[in-house]
Amino acid sequence: MTAAVSKIGENLGPKEHLPERKVYTDSSSDDSETDANANATPVARAKTADASGNKSVVRTKRTVESLGERGRIPNSLYISVLIIILLQSCSGMYQVKTLQQWWASVTTSSRTIYNHFEYLKDLMNSIYMGDIRGTQEYVIAAVVTALVASLVGIFFWAPLRAGVWTGQRASRHKMHRYMGLLFLIQYTLAWVEFLTDYRGDGSQSFLTHSLAINGVVQAYSAYFSFKVLPKGVDAGYYSDKGVLSRDFIHENAFFQMMCLFGSVYYDSGRRELLRSTLPGKFVEILFIFFPYAIVRPFFPVTSFNKAATRQKNTRSSGLERFYEIGTTMIKIFYLWAKYFLGFHINFMVFLGIVKPQNQMFVHGLYLLNLGTVSLGVFLHTLRFKKILPAWFTFSVYLCQIYATFTALPYAIDVFGTHPKLCLVSLAGFLLNMTRSKKLHACWSVGTMLLLVLADIEW
């Protein structure tokens, strides 16, 4: 669900062919950039006849972009800044109390974590002192602790031990590294707050918006930090040896912007403020009905169909089948998620037909989505730097996106009670199969007219 259907690779329109690319080579780049250039630098080839005219000779010509050309500010950044200003100003965020709410969420969640450690300490002492409690309490504590410890080990301990945020490795791209660490901390606190202090009134703390802003900054800092990454519609994600394409890094910023919109729109109070102004209504219509028709063209598009095609041997022979199945699973999930967990949920919020008991479902899926957009890229970094095995990080990502199905009972209620709206979403889903941008745009306009003007009991 969520305002963003984060994806790793998507192709709304007609099939695209890999464009001729130019790569800037910088001898001062760090290990990730140097490896990227070594594995993925494209070349332009031309056939010419030799002196006798009998043979064709292949001459290789490398085209190079300057550092300045690779560092140009893309139009998407201007669009993103404009949208951020409109969202924040129209939803009443430019106030001192906004920061106070953020700090209150941070301190409350931190205190909750501390109290949980104290609880575990008391639980262990109860065993030592012979004051045995119920078996169920110990089992629940053990399962929760094991799950949390596993996630901490993957996302915090493994990169910390490898020097991602400390030592010589952390001397380059400091903003990107430490903003990434800040994202992980805020994401952890956001889940703690959601699970232990959910308000139930349709409102969210400022922590979710701060997290979304953090994600946008991360996306663009990656785009400007890693300039030597190859361009192309092959995302470079679906393999154990491939390098992320710069187009994929840039594309990720679009899904971060979708998350940013959700951080405002899924809060009932901020949503009403947004709707109370003309610019706010414009942003609402833009992201509810036309995110892929109007905003998406400012960002590049990667394709599932081009996965692992940029370079040969980007998948180990023993993992070829594993990545083929995994890529198909991701493709199926995101096609479903784009229309039913993205558009459909947004339509329900727009119409005001989300039941109070389903508000937690909406907010929970939103937090999951925030994670898939940013943590998926971080998992690739852990793989690329050989901190964790490739098959393992890819498996963690698959588990993360399919974790949405843990809320299936809520989903059945959400979709089953609004069959007409489901048909609208299904129509968009089927039209997406045609890969026609024009048909998708027509569906977007038609859906807007149905939801805004038609007198239908959804």
TrEMBL record:
The chain crosses the membrane at residues 77-96, 138-158, 178-194, 286-305, 332-354, 360-379, 391-412, 418-434. Coiled coil: none annotated. Keywords: Membrane, Transmembrane, Transmembrane helix. It comes from the Eukaryota. The keyword Metal-binding does not apply. Residues 13-24 have a biased composition (Basic and acidic residues). Residues 1-55 are annotated as: Disordered. This is Uncharacterized protein. It comes from Seminavis robusta.
